[in-house]
């Protein structure tokens, strides 16, 4: 049995793309997966599966069941923990509500580290904010608050892969769900 984390992007933001978490759990379990548990209303689902799972199948099933189309980033238990442990900004991210991990659906073509042409401010222009790149995630520290970030939202949409962010407080709660039988 394998454990997965499905992260839906852009649901339940204000009144946009509303999905009830009970419906999301039911959809996941209707696909034959088990032990589906959601966290908050932002599209975080931890579940178990004896069969391989792919994000596209989840996206299609969720859209069919709820009428809401939302990209899904699917991460297995081991990879999720690896991404969390690899956070290069962990020492400076003293407030978990002001630090983000953007989980990526795949590798960014050409790598994101030299991506100022996609609309990302230079490292100097970002200060005191920080952005760091991992193989499967982008890490962001926003000491002035996430709503004050100097990185435009369109940057994350320009990567050519799905990127969905969660603050470290939420990430820690997802890890706790992964630890729960």
Tell me about this structure:
- This is DUF1697 domain-containing protein.
- Pfam families: DUF1697 (PF08002).
- The chain folds into two domains: 2-76, Alpha-Beta Plaits, CATH 3.30.70; 80-179, Alpha-Beta Plaits (2-Layer Sandwich), CATH 3.30.70.
- 29% of the residues lie in helices and 24% in strands.
- It contains six helices and eight strands.
- It starts with a strand and ends with a helix.
- The mean pLDDT is 92.
Shape: globular
CATH class of the largest domain: Alpha Beta
The oligomeric state of the chains shown is single chain
Class per helix and strand makeup: alpha+beta
DSSP strand count: 8
Mean pLDDT score: 92
The biggest sheet, with number of strands, parallel, antiparallel or mixed sense and barrel status, is:
4 strands, antiparallel
Indicate the percent of residues in helices. 25-40%
| Number of separate domains | 2
> In the CATH scheme, what's the topology name of the largest domain?
Alpha-Beta Plaits
Q: Please trace the helix and strand order, writing H or E for each element.
A: EHEEHEHEHEEHEH
Supply Rg. Answer: 16 Å
Total number of helical segments? 6
Distance between the termini: 12 Å
- Unreliable stretches (pLDDT < 50, length at least 5) are none
Strand order of the largest sheet: 2-3-1-4
β-strand percent reads 15-25%
Per CATH, the architecture of the largest domain is 2-Layer Sandwich
